[in-house]
Amino acid sequence: MDCFSYRGAELYAEDTPVEAIVERFGTPCYIYSRKALETALAEYQSALAGCDHLVCYAVKANSNLAVLDILARQGAGFDIVSRGELERVIAAGGDPAKVVFSGVGKRPEEMAFALEQDIACFNVESAAELEVLAAVAAEMGKVAPVSVRVNPDVDAKTHPYISTGLKENKFGVTVEEARQVYRRAAQLDSIAVVGIDCHIGSQLTEISPFIDALRRLLALVDELAGDGIELRHLDLGGGLGVRYADETPPAVADYIAAIRRELGERQVKLVFEPGRSIAANAGLLVTRVEYLKPTPAHNFALVDAAMNDLLRPSLYQAWMDIQPVRHRDGSEDASWDVVGPVCETGDFLGKARQLRLEAGDLLAVSGAGAYGFTMSSNYNSRPRAPEIIVDGASIHCARERETIADLMRGEHRLPD
Ligand SMILES: *Cc1c(COP(=O)(O)O)cnc(C)c1O
C-alpha cells in the first residue's frame, strides 16, 4: 500500500499535501505515514496468525519515539542493540517483556539495565559475552534469558556491508561453536536458555537464503534436543527487502508462509526482527533545490539535504527514488545529479535522474523511513532534520529540527 501518492500534480502524504508540511517545518524534512507503519506491521501479524509469535521491530531502522509508540500500540515487540534503544522503547510506552537484545558488543552496564527491565531475551553473540552476562546476572541475583545468535554461513546475496550471515562476518557464532555455547549456558545457574536466533543480512530479495538458514538452525535445534536442551523460540531476525527501484522482494505473507511450511508441525514460538520492511516505505525525505548548476560533464541540482541527512546513497551506493513534490509541465526533462552541500564528492542523493527542475523546487526521496534519520549526523555542523508524522489529514511533529545551540551543547572552550 502506498501512503504517498499524487493528487493531480501534487504529492500527498496520506491526506496531507507535502507542501503544507514544508510550509510549517521547512526543509530538509522527514515525513512518515502512520498508516504505512501500521499496515506494514499488520502484514507480519496477520501472516503469523494462529501461530505463537512475536514481531520485534528493529529499533535501529527508525527509533523516533512516535514511531515506536505507533508500533507498540499495535502490539509490536522490539529488537534493540543498545541501552539507548531500550530507553527509547520504554519512553515510547513499549513493553520490555517483548524486547530482544541483539548486538556483538553489549557492555555489562547495558546488560544490567536490561536485566532490571526484565527483557524477553539476550541474543548472545559469543562465548565471551555469555560469561559476562552470566556474571552480571549472578551479581544481581537474576537469571538472564538467552538465545545464541547462530551465523548459519549462508549468502544473503545482498550488499556486502549489510550481509551478516557469512562466516567471515563478525556476527554470531558458527553452528559448531553454538553447540558448545549452549552446553555451557545450560550449566550456568544465572542463565536460562530460551531460544535460538539468526539474522543473515538486510534488504534480502529472495526467500531461499532465509530457508537455508532456517534448515541449519533446525538441524542444530534437533541436536540440542538430543543433548537435553529444549528451545522455546526460534528468532529468524529481520532482513526482508523492500522495493527501492526495480527489486521484487517477496511479500511478507509469502515469506512467512514459506517459513511456516518449512517448520511443519514443530511447536515453537516464532520471533522476527523486521526493521526495513516495516519502516522504509513509510517515510520520505523532502528537500529543496537551492541551485541548478549545469556543467560540461554533469548537470548538478544542489539541494538542501545531504549525506549527513541521508547516508544510504553515499554509504552503500543505494538507489533511492527521487520525485518532484509538484510535477511541472512545459520544459523538457534533463538528467540531474542530485547532490548536497557537504564537502565530499561522495555527497549525493541520486545520480543521472530524469527530472524537470527549477531552483526552489521541492523533491521527495522515497524509501527514507528506514536507516534514514537514524543514520544521520551533524557532519559539517548541519542540524538534523525534523521528523513529521502524518495521520490522515493531521500532522504531528515527532521531532523538532535541531538548532545550532543543540549542536554545541556540552562543548566547552579552554579555560583562559
Ligand atoms: C539490523 C538488524 C535487524 C533489522 O534488519 P532489517 O533488514 O532492517 O529488517 C534485525 N536484527 C538484527 C540483529 C539486526 O542487526
Would you give an account of this structure?
- The protein is an alpha/beta fold and 416 residues long.
- The protein folds into two domains: 4-32 and 280-408, Lyase, Ornithine Decarboxylase, Chain A, domain 1 (Beta Barrel); 34-277, Alpha-Beta Barrel (TIM Barrel).
- Helices cover 29% and strands 24% of the residues.
- The chain contains twelve helices and 20 strands.
- It has helices spanning 18-25, 34-47, 65-73, 83-91, 108-116, 127-140, 175-187, 208-226, 252-263, 276-279, 312-316, 404-408, and strands spanning 4-7, 10-13, 16-17, 29-33, 53-58, 77-80, 99-101, 121-124, 144-149, 191-197, 233-235, 269-272, 283-294, 299-303, 322-324, 334-339, 348-355, 362-365, 387-391, 394-399.
- The strands form three sheets. Strands 4, 13, 14, 15, 16, 17, 18, 19 and 20 form a nine-stranded mixed sheet that branches. The chain has an eight-stranded parallel β-barrel with strand order 5-6-7-8-9-10-11-12, surrounded by five helices.
- Helix 9 links the parallel strand 11 and strand 12 (269-272).
- Helix 2 (34-47) runs parallel beside helix 9 (252-263) and helix 5 (108-116) crosses helix 6 (127-140).
- The longest helix is centred in the middle third of the chain and has 19 residues, at 208-226.
- The protein is globular and about 75 Å long.
- The N and C termini lie far apart (60 Å).
- The model has no long low-confidence stretch (mean pLDDT 96).
- The protein binds pyridoxal-5'-phosphate (PLP).
- Pyridoxal-5'-phosphate binds at residues 58, 60-61, 79, 102, 199, 202, 237-239, 273-277, 370.
